[in-house]
Specification:
The complex is a heterodimer of chains A (about 450) and B (about 950). By secondary structure, chain A is mainly β. Chain A has a single domain, classed as 7 Propeller (Methylamine Dehydrogenase, Chain H), CATH 2.130.10. Chain A is built from 7 helices and 33 strands. In chain A, strands 2, 3, 4, 5 and 6 form a 5-stranded antiparallel sheet that branches. Chain A has a 4-stranded antiparallel sheet with strand order 1-33-32-31. A 4-stranded antiparallel sheet of chain A has the order 7-8-9-10, with no helix packed on it. By secondary structure, chain B is an alpha/beta fold. Among the domains of chain B are: about 210 residues, no CATH class; about 150 residues, Rossmann fold, CATH 3.40.50; about 60 residues, no CATH class. Helices cover about 55% and strands about 10% of the residues of chain B. In chain B, the strands form 2 sheets. A 7-stranded mixed sheet of chain B has the order 2-1-5-4-3-6-7, with helices on both faces. Chain B has a 6-stranded mixed sheet with strand order 9-10-8-11-12-14. In chain B, a hairpin with a 4-residue loop joins strand 11 and strand 12. The longest helix of chain B is centred in the first third of the chain and has 51 residues. Chain B is elongated. Classes of the chains: A mainly beta (about 450), B alpha/beta (about 950). At the A-B interface, strand 1 and helix 7 of A face helix 31, helix 32, helix 35, helix 36 and helix 37 of B. Chain B: Its main location: cytoplasm.
């Protein structure tokens, strides 16, 4: 966003020289998204997308309404779920198991109007509404095993399916809980400011019929506010802070397994001296979002993307200016692809590639060919960096970008069959689809319809 | 100029021209003025030559019971249009041919006056002296104050081109019926209102009279009534009777079968309203006070008046105007419909027919026609679809032919009309062209021509005739009234209907009479004709039967030829008749005739009654022969001539019997009427290029767009990639400072933009705000304002940001930034060295190219095996490669052309699957391809 607002002029090469931002040319052979549909229903920033099933998703944002969409038919599923008077701060779905009925999804939304509302996403009805909060609920999490859900604001509350308050903690902090995850042994981790607090949930037993929630431990290793908190696997979870600290924790005994704060490594900054001013802005290294697979933790650090290998306990690949502006959300696709979206309004698709010949050929030539002309300066810097990173055995290669939003892309959602959904501060949701695949599907439908109409033979 | 075909009889074919002029010793009776209209313009094709009016117009006349026939208004209401044309005279003519079997009044055996809901009658008549031919639509409106409660009106479409009236009869009839229905609906409403008022008056009068009588009764206690009292009682009784009568009338008018009004262009609300009324009356069907009270309650504002016992003399009162007779609302609606008709049939017949065929063909292509056809036309089509169920069968027929085949008859018709005075040329054509294809056609095409179609055409074309100088001929009237009217009118005719005349009528399917009105063919079911004739002319059974049968044959013939040919057929006939005065000439013709592969031609000349003894089944044979013929000619244009002149030749021998006088009169008439009529028909389009019927503004628009597109192609060497962008669905942004220039170019380029659906094209002519992603989804061609101010920086930035979705044509710097194009399609579509000069021609060229492209896209989209795997294990790649090879090898597409067809195919798919139009969002499809900067 920054870049194309400040940039001025219509010539992208001129811009490109100002920052080492990796760009991909107009020819993006590996980018499958060649069709888009703009969905418009919101009147304000759309911040959240949640997947409901294989083809439906819900969007929510600052206008306080929730819209359920069908990615298949590219339309609204039904009317807007409007009940909140202020912006929605958290949204989560859980399958409700009401009295023998078949599973139907329930959407829980928390809002700045200090209410939580539950919606049936098949009928669009509001099921229930809770408004006994002292503060805005900022995060919600569901504990499937215990059939309860938790809300985190200035305090932590435990609720059951029927939205009855089971128990709550005392006032924790004025800033409130910023992130909340479930860990084994009926525990949850809450990130509050610089602290991580581990709570244990006590389910009713024969002894006591009451639910209870107890603070078990406080972890004070972070030096700045914790921004992200994610489960990695059965063994560990990971946290990231505002000053670029990445800490991997043991999930069972809550000890630190690894500590990484290499993201502002001075050696990396050497080759981009002209950008130093920009680069030293503190939010440049704040960790906004994590995503993980079995081996790696992918971190959105400032404007860059980093791949941290859990085994090797070090960064194996990085793209320190992946976007023009902060990366807000990342996701790992099954095919070694990584998608990131950013405040600059673009979505980029990356591929994690193993480096075969470390020194000889730092970057595949085919990749450079796409760059076009007039970018020699910038490219010159790139190999240097690569060589310094060649300790990292992998590289993140840009294979495509999706440009459509005119403002920061807040979040996206990936559907296996229906492409990518992005939501943005420009009030729009864009559905990106594989054009070829869609064309085939349309043909299929066409012949189905022909057959139905009896026109086929 | 040859305008007197009679001279042909005295010349040989090859040198008749010189001899015509050099021959001084023509017999007196054959000498005709060479060209009677030279005073008005040197050019015989001049539009003014025949008619006294400059173009077609619609005339509404009334047969006023006070002053007789009088013109009421014309559409367009411009004295320049009808010029010196005598409207009063023509009103008299058209109003004197009223065939309505309407009978209002006291029918025998009924106590009260009965309203008859008569159908309108539709009549074609011509007056060659005035040079006017008219489709006349008679209708009756109800008026309580009028004699017999009816006011006869008629609407006439008056044209100098006879063939236009003939061939557009069906369309004219359908359109005028709508107008008439509208008038009548309004009239019924007004009439009902009038009746209600009258009833209230009567009721009030009754009350007053009643009280008066009571007072008198009280005052008079002698026990016997004074004469005054008796008078009052009588008056009261007559009022009572009048009330009952009027109630009955009200009931009648409300019980009008409303289904009839369906399909007329009443608005839904009105229709509902009338339905409601109908329902109302049906519930309160007993004719007592209940209906009235209801009526009173719904119209409380009216204050009843006392009705004088003696009604005023009918000449004292002022008759209601047409607007008063109908509701004002309906009246204006009718006027709108009439001016729509005027627009619709404006222009030359050739053009009308072409556009009709065009439209019919487009309708046939309902899957692809939305892509490049005009919004206006599509809407037009929609309207037509709902409006005229009647037209359907007739309209559906042309599409069975291919486009090329359809178009050629049009060319021929103009040739025919030019040459019409030179009869021999026509014959030659017929011989040469007719013979070859006749036989095979006989074999193949019989089955394709079913009876239904036959009947439809019968309906449409059975009024083939030409007028005579002093007479008005009525050629076709409506089915329902036809039987009656024919016998009526013919019986009442005082014409010296000599056998000769009858015969000649049989020959040329036309009546020639002096100062008379004749009704020719009317009845669609031919079977009725002979009986009818027999009944009315017992003395002339033989002749009449001949006539009837012959004309029956002729009807068959005309009924089955396609509309474009009709005119020529008639020409041929007319021209033949005069020439037959010379018997040697006739024999020559007959030998021509024998060359025709018709089944036993001599037989056909005979008569059932043994006048020329011949077995009756020959007629059936002949019919069959004709059927074949028609079918053929639908397929091959060359057949037209042969079939068109067939009947005339067949009937030659009967022509021989015709006396010289008759042939002379006919000759005179033809000589001046036909030749110029045909010339008018064929040239008017040239002289007035703006005569295109449906929406001449859109024509002009097309022309201008074509011209500008042509200019663009010549001016910019990079026109091809720009057009490719449009065709492949990549938004083209035309960037410029000058709004007028940008708009002009956008309009010009919009002819290349495929539509999403049958709405407006996805073209935005002028935007000044920064573009957004949704704009690219919505618009495929955008005119964008370039502003020098810093405020517009955002506009350009947005443009560069979304550059992957757009091609940018910078008008100020004369550059184009867009993907490369290396196909072969666009160079053919937009060749900068093209010889095409005119915008409209180029537009046509583009349309035809795009239609070809559409057909390719259609093929590609609907080829089953291309899109579905042949079996389960077939991979997606295999299917894709099959698609590519089909596009390249079968459709012959090169490089980027493939993308054009693929894009069109996607549009077709989306459109076909659209459940309800308008609900689905357009999809923005794009490719990640590099763009290049083109400069001049």
């Amino acid at each position: 966003m920054l870049r194309w607002l400040i940039g001025g002029g219509r010539e992208p090469p001129g811009l490109a020289e100002k920052s080492p931002l990796q760009t991909v040319g107009e020819e993006q052979t590996q980018n499958p998204y060649t069709e888009l549909i703009v969905l418009k229903a919101h009147h304000d920033i759309v911040r959240f997308l949640v997947q409901l099933d294989h083809y439906r998703f819900a969007s929510a944002g600052d206008d306080g309404i929730v819209v359920v969409w069908n990615a298949q038919v590219r339309e609204k599923d039904f009317w807007d779920l409007s009940g909140h008077t202020q912006k929605i701060t958290a949204i989560i779905t859980f399958p409700s198991l009401k009295s023998g009925e078949e599973k139907n999804q329930v959407i829980l939304t928390a809002s700045a109007d200090r209410t939580i509302q539950a919606w049936d996403c098949d009928t669009g009805r509001q099921i229930q509404r809770v408004s006994c909060f002292q503060s805005t609920v900022k995060c919600l999490t569901v504990l499937q095993r215990l059939d309860v859900w938790l809300s985190g604001g200035n305090d932590l509350c435990v609720w059951n399916q029927e939205l009855d308050l089971l128990c709550k903690t005392g006032h924790l902090s004025d800033t409130g809980i910023s992130a909340l995850i479930e860990i084994p042994k009926n525990c949850v981790v809450a990130a509050i400011g610089k602290e991580l607090i581990i709570f244990r949930l006590v389910a009713p037993t024969e002894g006591s019929l009451e639910w209870d929630i107890l603070e078990v431990k406080r972890l004070l290793d972070h030096q700045d506010n914790i921004l992200s908190l994610v489960n990695v696997n059965d063994l560990s979870f990971v946290t990231g802070s505002h000053v670029g600290e990445l800490i991997v924790w043991d999930i069972l005994d809550w000890t630190m397994q690894a500590y990484e704060r290499n993201f502002w490594d001075p050696s990396l900054q050497l080759d981009t001296q002209q950008e130093i001013k920009l680069y030293q802005k503190p939010n440049d290294i704040s960790i906004h979002h994590f995503t993980c697979d079995e081996e790696n933790v992918f971190a959105a650090v400032g404007r860059g993307l980093y791949v941290y290998n859990l085994q090797m306990k070090r960064v194996i690949a990085c793209q320190k200016t992946a976007h023009d502006s902060n990366v807000l959300h990342i996701a790992k696709l099954p095919n070694r692809q990584l998608i990131s979206c950013s405040e600059d309004g673009s979505v980029r698709i990356w591929e994690l590639r193993e480096k075969q010949q470390l020194a000889a050929e730092p970057v595949p030539t085919g990749f450079f060919n796409m760059w076009g002309f007039g970018r020699a300066n910038k490219q010159a810097s790139q190999p240097v960096k690569k060589q310094q990173e060649n300790a990292n055995s992998c590289s993140l290669e840009l294979i495509g970008d999706l440009i459509g939003h005119s403002s920061s892309v807040e979040m996206f959602l990936y559907f296996e069959d229906h492409g990518l959904v992005t939501c943005s501060a420009d009030h729009l949701i864009i559905l990106w689809k594989n054009g070829e695949q869609e064309s085939g599907l349309r043909s299929l439908k066409l012949f189905q319809k022909l057959e139905e109409n009896g026109d086929l033979y | 100029m040859i305008s007197a075909p009679d001279v042909v009889a005295f010349t040989k074919e090859d040198e008749y021209e010189e001899e015509t002029y050099n021959e001084p010793a023509l017999p007196e009776e054959y000498s005709v003025p060479l060209f009677p209209f030279t005073s008005q313009g040197a050019n015989p094709w001049s539009k003014l030559s025949g008619a006294k009016f400059s173009r077609d117009f619609i005339l509404i006349s009334e047969f006023s019971e006070q002053v007789g026939p009088q013109p009421l208004l014309t559409i367009p209401n411009d004295t320049k249009v009808f010029g010196t044309f005598d409207l009063n005279y023509f009103s008299l003519r058209i109003m004197s041919v009223d065939y309505q079997a309407s009978f209002v009044g006291h029918p025998p055996g009924s106590a009260y006056p009965k309203l008859n809901f008569v159908e309108d009658s539709k009549v074609v008549l011509g007056d060659s002296k005035e040079g006017a031919f008219a489709y006349v639509h008679h209708l009756t409106l109800y008026d309580l104050e009028a004699r017999g409660f009816v006011r006869p009106f008629c609407m006439a479409y008056i044209s100098a081109d006879q063939h236009k009236i003939m061939q557009q009869f069906q369309e004219l009839s359908a359109e005028f019926s709508k107008a008439s229905e509208c008038l009548k609906t309004g009239n019924r409403k007004a009439f009902a209102g009038e009746l209600e008022k009258k009833l209230k008056d009567l009721d009030y009068t009754r009350t007053v009279l009643h009280t008066e009588t009571e007072i008198q009764k009280k005052a008079n206690d002698k026990g016997f009534y004074s004469s005054q009292a008796i008078e009052k009682a009588n008056e009261l009784a007559s009022v009572e009777k009048s009330i009952i009568e009027h109630q009955d009338l009200l009931k009648q008018i409300r019980s009008y079968p409303y289904r009839k009004s369906k399909g007329s262009d009443l608005s839904a609300g009105e229709a509902e309203h009338t339905q409601d009324q109908a329902g109302q009356t049906s519930t309160t069907s007993n004719p007592d006070e209940s209906a009235d009270t209801e009526v009173y309650t719904c119209r409380p504002t009216y204050t009843p008046k006392l009705i004088k016992a003696k009604s005023t003399k009918c000449f004292d009162k002022k008759l209601k105007t047409l607007e008063e007779l109908c509701d004002t609302e309906y009246f204006t609606q009718t006027l709108a419909q009439l001016s729509h008709i005027e627009h619709m049939f404006r222009g030359d017949l050739c053009y009308l027919l072409t556009s009709q065929i065009d439209r019919a063909l487009l309708k046939q292509q309902h899957i692809t026609n939305f892509l490049f056809e005009d919004f206006v036309e599509v809407v037009d089509r929609m309207v037509e679809k709902q409006g005229s169920a009647l037209l359907e069968p007739g309209q559906d027929r042309p599409p069975s032919r291919s486009l090329e085949e359809c178009l050629i008859p049009k060319v021929l018709i103009s040739v025919g009309s030019y040459k019409s005075s030179v009869e021999s040329v026509v014959i030659k054509m017929e011989q040469e062209l007719g013979n070859e294809e006749y036989k095979e056609a006989e074999v193949t095409e019989v089955s394709s021509f079913d009876l239904q179609e036959n009947l439809d055409y019968l309906d449409m074309d059975m009024k083939g005739s030409i007028s005579s100088g002093e007479s008005i001929e009525v050629l076709g009237t409506e089915k329902s009234t036809s039987v009656l009217s024919k016998s009526d009118s013919q019986a009442s005719l005082t014409v010296p209907l000599s056998p000769q005349v009858v015969r000649s009528k049989a020959v040329s399917q036309r009546t020639i009479s002096e100062d008379s009105i004749e009704v020719l063919s009317t009845c669609p079911s031919e079977a009725l004709i002979p009986d009818d004739f027999k009944a009315s002319y017992p003395s002339a059974i033989n002749e009449e039967e001949t006539c009837a049968d012959d004309s029956e044959g002729a009807i068959h013939f005309q009924a089955s030829i396609s509309p474009p040919d009709l005119g020529e057929a008639e020409e041929g006939n007319l021209e033949n008749t005069p020439s037959h005065t010379d018997s040697s000439c006739c024999i020559g013709k007959e030998s021509d005739n024998l060359l025709m592969p018709l089944p036993t031609p001599p037989h056909k000349l005979s008569d059932n009654d043994g006048v020329v003894s011949i077995p009756p089944q020959s007629y059936r044979q002949k019919d069959q022969g004709f059927h074949v013929d028609f079918a053929v000619e639908n397929v091959s244009p060359s057949q037209d001539n042969s079939s068109e002149s067939f009947p005339a030749y067949e009937l030659d021998p009967s022509c021989l019997l015709a006396s010289r006088d008759v042939s002379k009169t006919s000759l005179d008439n033809y000589s001046d009427s036909t030749s110029y009529v045909s010339s008018v028909a064929s040239t008017s389009s040239e002289r007035t290029p703006s005569v295109h019927p449906p929406g001449s503004s859109s024509e002009r628009h097309k022309k201008r767009a074509g011209q500008n597109a042509l200019k663009f192609i010549r001016q910019y060497p990079f026109a091809h990639p720009a057009i490719y962008s449009l065709l492949s669905g990549r938004t083209l942004v035309v960037l410029g400072e000058d709004e007028a220039i940008v708009r002009k170019l956008v309009t010009a380029l919009s002819i290349f933009v495929p539509n999403y659906g049958c709405y407006a094209k996805p073209v935005k002519h002028w935007v000044s705000s920064p573009l957004h992603i949704t704009d690219f989804q919505k618009w495929k061609l955008i005119g964008l304002q370039r502003v020098a101010s810093p405020a517009s920086a955002g506009t350009l930035q947005a443009l560069s940001r979304y550059s992957r979705y757009t091609s940018i044509l910078d008008l100020d710097n004369k550059t184009l930034r867009c993907p490369m194009y290396r196909g072969t399609l666009v160079p053919r579509l937009a060749d900068h060295r093209t010889q095409i000069k005119r915008g409209s021609t180029y537009y046509m060229h583009v349309q035809s190219m795009l239609t070809q492209l559409c057909s390719k896209a259609f093929l590609y989209t609907f080829c089953h095996h291309l899109h579905l795997p042949a079996h389960n294990r077939e991979t997606q790649e295999l299917v894709a490669s099959r698609q590519v090879s089909f596009l390249k090898l079968n459709l012959g597409l090169v490089n980027e052309d493939v993308k054009v067809v693929q894009y069109l195919a996607e549009l077709l798919k989306l459109r076909y699957m659209q459940e309800s139009p308008g609900t689905s969002h357009p999809v923005l499809r794009f490719d990640y391809v590099p763009s290049f900067l083109y400069k001049i």
